[in-house]
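G., the chain you wanted modeled:
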Amino acid sequence: MTQLSRRALAIGLAALPLPALAQRPAAAPLSAADKALVDRATAYLQGLTEAKGRFVQTDPRGVTTRGELYLKRPGKARFDYEPPSGLLVVSDGGKVSIHDARLKTFESYPLMATPLSLFLARQVRLDQGVVISRVARFADGFAITARDGKKQAEGQITLTFTDKPLRLAGWTVTDAQGASTRIQLTELAPAPGLAPSLFVLNDPRPKNVGRAKM
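Predicted structure as tokens:
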């Protein structure tokens, strides 16, 4: 697998800055019913302070990878990919770092340059500072498509929720070319007391190895 395709594995975790989407018209005001779903999702995400579960990631080429995830708001997340991927992605609240053990690479990006920062924020506000372009309903849940209204986070993210019980089921990140990477979550459950060390990732390479440029 090429380095470019392996780096694309992290897009679904919003670990790579996405290109700005093309000019979009302003989103229409939400209906009362749509706003009620957004408010419900916002309250749920605000209460999702510490959790762990599993994920299945599907990249734009249809390649799937699996692993374990840990979330600790505000700002912290860890995604351990199963072998043979060799990827470890960690957000420490300020930056997102990617270590590829197979390629022996290490890269870091600002968390605020990613759509994932929308629901890892200290105060989740899907009703302020966020442009919601669509609220879709399904038989067993709903989805909210949003982007950062301040344009700090480039790209677009669609959060998907189950309805009964209300639970974050996953998200899809779409880039400027329309390519989408999907994350499906399973076994997501509260996990109080997660170790702080889970959200620390330092460059493990020897100091004489070239560091990636941001």
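The two ends are 23 Å apart (CA to CA).

Shout if anything looks off.
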